[in-house]
Design a protein that fits this description.
alpha/beta, 7-stranded parallel sheet, 141 residues, Rossmann fold, 3 helices
């Protein structure tokens, strides 16, 4: 049974940049554990921001990544989402993809704002109904 892990972003991460840096820490951990990760972004702007941050989010950290095939960590925009993946990471998605890629592990984030939390709750319910084993973790800062 696939596993979906939701990470609660603390309210102390005030800016989009700070929240994305926190997401990069989870992405690095997922890559180290799973060996391969696909990051799903809603648009080109978010994909580019994550691409930039994966180079600089932490001194001394290295996450080999690309916005195309060929690396272990791949960043996708909505039109290029994979059909299958070992590990999927949702980065600032409001809704689940119409056709959810097949995966072993899925990671999503619960933002601190109430409106964004509602979207995360809806995704949580949909994934649970789709047969995922659900987990929720606080993101330590």
């Amino acid at each position: 049974m696939p596993i979906a892990s939701f990470y609660e972003l603390p309210p102390t991460l005030l800016t989009p940049h700070e929240r994305r840096r926190g997401m990069c820490r989870v992405i690095a951990k997922a890559w180290q554990m799973m060996g391969e990760v696909d990051i799903l972004c809603p648009d080109a702007e978010t994909a580019q921001a994550m691409d930039d941050l994966l180079w600089t989010f932490q001194a001394g950290a290295f996450v080999p990544h690309a916005r195309a095939a060929g690396e272990r960590v791949r960043i996708h925009e909505q039109d290029t989402w994979p059909k299958q993946s070992i590990a999927l990471i949702f980065c600032e998605l409001n809704d689940l993809p119409a056709e959810l890629p097949i995966c072993t592990r899925l990671v999503d984030f619960i933002p601190a704002t109430e409106k964004a939390r509602e979207s995360a709750r809806a995704r949580y319910r949909e994934l649970k109904n789709a047969g995922f084993t659900m987990q929720v973790h606080p993101l330590e800062v």
